[in-house]
Amino acid sequence: MSRTDPEKQERKRLQHDAEHEKPTKRNPVLFYLLVLFAAAFLLLLMSFLMQRRANQEAINNLQETSNSASQSLQNTIAQNEELTKQVEGLQSAVSENQQTIRDQEDQLEALEQENEDLTKSSQALDWFWQINEAYVRGRYTQARSLIEEMGQELPEYLPKESVTNNDRFSPYDRYQEIYEALY
């Protein structure tokens, strides 16, 4: 019996241990939660990576847009500077043209005045010729009436120098001589 007792005791002990030992159940809910948590974590990780890639693409697009806008701005500034130079050149040309116009207007006025003076001088010479002719022929009354019709202004347009260089009176001096003789 000696052999049987330790065996018995061993069996008893094993049976007791088996009875008192809690069965190890695997908890399926815990495993399910663990799988769900892992899946959620993987989804969050994938979402983060996709969002990061989308943000990087957006940043690259914004950078390209910024570079394009910067280039457009530089082109616009260069065009503006070029147009400013053209405007300054055109303003200078306009100023020169206006000065030329003023000079030509002054020349035109001078020519018109000279033309008016020559016209009056021609008229005065015509009157002088008639007055001198009447005086030389002894028609003093006719000479006086011609002097009165001629007026006070036209004698000033008679040439004051003789162009023939014959030591004779100028038309103005001859008119004065006739005027003084008649009045």
Structure description:
The chain is an all-alpha fold and 183 residues long. Helices cover 81% and strands 0% of the residues. The protein has four helices and no strands. Helix 2 (28-136) packs antiparallel against helix 3 (140-150). The termini are far apart. The mean pLDDT is 89.
Topology, please?
Layout: H1 4-20, H2 28-136, H3 140-150, H4 171-182
Helix pairs in contact: 2-3, 2-4
Cα gyration radius (Å)? 64 Å
Number of distinct beta strands: 0
**Helical percentage:** over 70%
The number of helical segments is 4
Give helix and strand order, one letter per element, not per position.
Answer: HHHH
**Strand portion:** under 5%
Runs in which pLDDT lies below 50 for 5 or more consecutive residues are none
Structural class estimated from helices and strands: mainly alpha
Shape: rod-shaped
Distance from N terminus to C terminus (CA atoms, Å) equals 197 Å
Mean pLDDT: 89
Major β-sheet, in short? Answer: none
Keywords:
about 180 residues, mainly alpha, 4 helices, about 0% strand, rod-shaped
Put the structure in a nutshell.
By secondary structure, this protein is mostly helical.
